[in-house]
Design goal:
The chain has 180 residues and is an alpha+beta fold. Helix content is 32%, strand content 24%. The longest helix has 28 residues. Bound molecules: ligand K1U and zinc ion.
């Protein structure tokens, strides 16, 4: 099932996620739905926060073949490389906005896998960037918060304008639909 993705500046994107208590059937269904939603939206990652579930769960697939899903439950970054890199980021909650963010080149993460088994992972390059981006979502942080106040406010205004227009179009569509 495709899940609706919250759009910036929805305040629900700023909620801090709580740990997953049990990797049960509900979480398995959420994982399946989040993966379907991420692939459908052509993203390389998705955090539960973005689908309005405030629990520590993210899905990622940075493979070219789009067949190597990674599920991180209760992830914690245990080490950040001192070496940093500035790279272009995007976000499914901030469509069509891309900008540069500085991140550690590599990270170590501890997490539970989709079966609830404890795992550790050392990531670099795109995977390391994606993990840092997704774990920020779980802390209620969207990547545009790293940009200047000026850029942040411009993006916020642009997104609100688009959302108001979409709302108006939906209202018009509803009004002009013939009543059966
Ligand atoms: O969290 C999200 O909204 C998903 C996001 C992940 C991400 C992309 C780029 C850098 C860090 C994290 C996306 O998948 S945005 C769409 C996308 O596929 C993409 C955008 C820019 C660069 C690479 C990929
Ligand atoms: Zn994002």
């Amino acid at each position: 099932m495709l899940l609706p993705i919250l759009a910036f500046p929805d305040p629900r994107l700023n909620i801090v996620a709580k740990p997953v208590v049990e990797v049960d059937q509900r979480i398995q269904k959420l994982i399946a739905d989040m993966l379907e939603t991420m692939y459908d939206a052509k993203g390389i990652g998705l955090a539960a926060t973005q689908v309005n579930v405030h629990e520590r769960l993210v899905v990622i697939d940075v493979s070219d073949t789009r067949d190597q899903p990674l599920v991180l439950i209760n992830p914690e970054i245990t080490w950040y490389s001192p070496e940093k890199h500035v790279g272009e980021e995007g976000c499914l909650s901030v469509p069509e906005i891309y900008d540069k963010v500085e991140r550690s080149v590599a990270v170590k993460v501890s997490y539970l896998d989709a079966k609830g088994k404890p795992q550790q992972l050392e990531a670099d390059d795109m995977l390391a960037v994606c993990i840092q981006h997704e774990l920020d979502h779980l802390l209620g942080k969207v990547f545009v918060e790293y940009l200047s106040k000026l850029k942040f406010n411009r993006i916020k205004t642009k997104m609100l304008k688009i959302q108001r227009e979409e709302e108006k179009d939906a209202q018009y569509e509803k009004m002009s639909r013939p009543k059966l």
